């Protein structure tokens, strides 16, 4: 499931961006190679006043940014994949210099190698990064780099340089980014090209300094977490090779704002040599998540089946991951019997793996064995209470079994734990509607629309709910308060 955009927000986006960034600096973290000209561009926004650049302000800024981003981007709703990445991030954070550890992850359905950090503790990951990484340590190296951007507060440290940039130049660049991100068109690239030249040199020099520091600090985090220090250089060498491949034709100059260079890669390699090389066993969880991503990126279930059939012949855990990917492909193709056969082979190295439990429940549901799916997930939840991907899978199984009332109560409880997760509110609205809770349906839809930047739709849903509450003062007060929140968010977007 993807979070779809709101045209109402997109229509006012260019105006807001131009106003917000007229006195701001762009801080894109790792926008690496293998990117097409219509790939998503990531605006990072803020005001110029020094007094505003507190951690509290950055958090507000990040929250607004995320709503705008979700309105533009194909954000992926995959609780299992997100849980895996989050666990890896927080493992690294424990060994980092980051003080404020209230982080939010956004996973983008995009095949390119990219990750980014936004003020306010937001870390974004393209699922293409997992696809192209050769090991979990390589993935961890990129994430450690992003954590370093946050811990060193590179956004705030660039505000003085932002003040020296031409308003026209920055506004033009950001308008181009907004256009390219929302429309995916050559028009956005043309807008960026037309205004980039004047500020390019100074921006690049400063970015190189930030990137170098993030490389150094990220490596410290990687080493402290017990991972291979050479993983960063290995990953960047392949990025550099890809960069060379595209730099002469399809890759616009702007996308090299934070360039990879032979010197930068050599510096990373030299730093790694001063550390003890760590040889770790392959991460089976990484291999499973990589298979999951490759299934997501496949053009069709048939393509996925062909891809994973080849992988199953390689042996070891790689073959098991191939069988898992094959099971997912068969589920999508509506072939649960074949999916079951493939999953049984995938499970041999680790039968109790969470990915297999969830996949098994999906196969149960596809075969009409709803009680079996529910029991399987309920039993596993008793061993892992509160686990988010398990809870969501359980709610989905209840929903498919025709038990929307039970699913709604489960998701209500989960929404209190994860109020910033659009996927929870989306599901909750659906099951509330099936359960006959129409007021709740509209309220949950409103929460979903707020999180994905569809403020007009959120306002409409709250007004629908308000008409239905009659004389219930408590409910009316709650809905009216949320309507005021929506207006406040709108004002912030328009006046930042």
Notes on the protein architecture:
By secondary structure, the chain is mainly α. It contains 23 helices and 4 strands. The protein has helices at 7-21, 55-72, 79-93, 127-132, 136-151, 154-157, 159-164, 167-183, 186-224, 230-247, 262-273, 284-297, 301-311, 316-332, 336-346, 354-366, 370-383, 388-400, 404-417, 422-434, 438-451, 455-468, 473-495; strands at 30-31, 104-108, 114-118, 122-126. Strands 1-3-4-2 form a 4-stranded mixed beta sheet, with helices on both faces.
Helix/strand-derived class? mainly alpha
Strand arrangement within the widest β-sheet reads 1-3-4-2
- Major sheet summary line: 4 strands, mixed
- Approximately how much helix is present in the residues? 55-70%
> Measured on Cα atoms, how large is the radius of gyration?
23 Å
| Total domain modules | 2
Low-confidence stretches: 1-52, 166-206, 251-258
What order do the SSEs take from the amino end to the carboxyl end, as H and E?
A: HEHHEEEHHHHHHHHHHHHHHHHHHHH
Overall shape: globular
Distance between the termini: 31 Å
Proportion of strand residues: under 5%
* Rounded average pLDDT: 80
Annotation field: number of helices? 23
């Amino acid at each position: 499931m993807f979070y779809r955009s709101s045209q109402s927000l997109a229509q006012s986006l260019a105006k807001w961006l131009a106003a917000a960034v007229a006195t701001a600096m762009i801080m894109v973290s790792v926008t690496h190679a293998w990117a097409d000209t219509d790939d998503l561009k990531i605006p990072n926004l803020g005001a110029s006043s020094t007094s505003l650049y507190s951690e509290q302000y950055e958090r507000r800024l990040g929250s607004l940014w995320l709503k705008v981003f979700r309105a533009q981007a194909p954000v992926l709703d995959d609780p299992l994949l997100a849980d895996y990445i989050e666990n890896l991030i927080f493992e690294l954070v424990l060994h980092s210099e980051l003080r404020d550890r209230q982080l939010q992850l956004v996973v983008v359905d995009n095949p390119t190698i990219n990750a980014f950090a936004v003020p306010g503790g937001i870390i974004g990951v393209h699922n293409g990064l997992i696809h192209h990484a050769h090991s979990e340590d390589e993935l961890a190296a990129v994430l450690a780099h992003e954590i370093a951007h946050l811990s060193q507060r590179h956004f705030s440290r660039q505000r003085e340089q932002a003040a020296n940039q031409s308003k026209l130049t920055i506004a033009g660049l950001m308008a181009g980014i907004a256009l390219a991100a929302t429309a995916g068109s050559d028009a956005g690239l043309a807008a960026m090209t037309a205004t980039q030249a004047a500020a390019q040199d100074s921006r690049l020099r400063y970015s190189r300094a930030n990137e170098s520091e993030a490389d150094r600090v990220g490596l410290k985090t990687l080493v402290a977490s017990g991972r291979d220090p050479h993983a960063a250089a290995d990953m960047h060498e392949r990025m550099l090779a890809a960069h060379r491949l595209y730099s002469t034709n399809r890759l616009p100059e702007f996308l090299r704002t934070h360039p990879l260079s032979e010197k930068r890669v050599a510096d990373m390699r030299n730093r790694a040599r001063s550390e003890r090389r760590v040889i770790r066993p392959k991460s089976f969880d990484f291999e499973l998540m990589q298979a999951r991503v490759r299934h997501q990126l496949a053009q069709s279930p048939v393509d996925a089946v062909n891809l994973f059939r080849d992988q199953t012949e390689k042996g070891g855990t790689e073959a098991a991951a191939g069988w898992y990917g094959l099971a997912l492909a068969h589920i999508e193709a509506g072939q649960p019997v074949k999916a079951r056969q493939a999953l049984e082979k995938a499970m041999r190295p680790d039968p109790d793996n969470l990915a297999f439990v969830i996949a098994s429940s999906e196969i149960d549901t596809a075969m009409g064995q709803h009680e079996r799916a529910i029991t399987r997930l309920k039993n596993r939840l008793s061993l892992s209470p509160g686990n988010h991907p398990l809870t969501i899978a359980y709610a989905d199984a209840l929903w498919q079994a025709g038990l929307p009332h039970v699913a709604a109560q489960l998701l209500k409880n989960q929404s209190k734990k994860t109020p910033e997760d659009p996927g929870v509110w989306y599901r909750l609205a659906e099951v509330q509607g099936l359960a006959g809770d129409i007021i709740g349906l509209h309220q949950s839809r409103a929460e979903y629309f707020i999180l994905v930047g569809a403020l007009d739709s959120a306002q409409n849903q709250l007004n629908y709910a308000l008409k239905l509450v009659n004389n219930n003062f408590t409910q009316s007060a709650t809905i009216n308060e949320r309507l005021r929140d929506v207006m406040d968010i709108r004002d912030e977007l328009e006046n930042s």
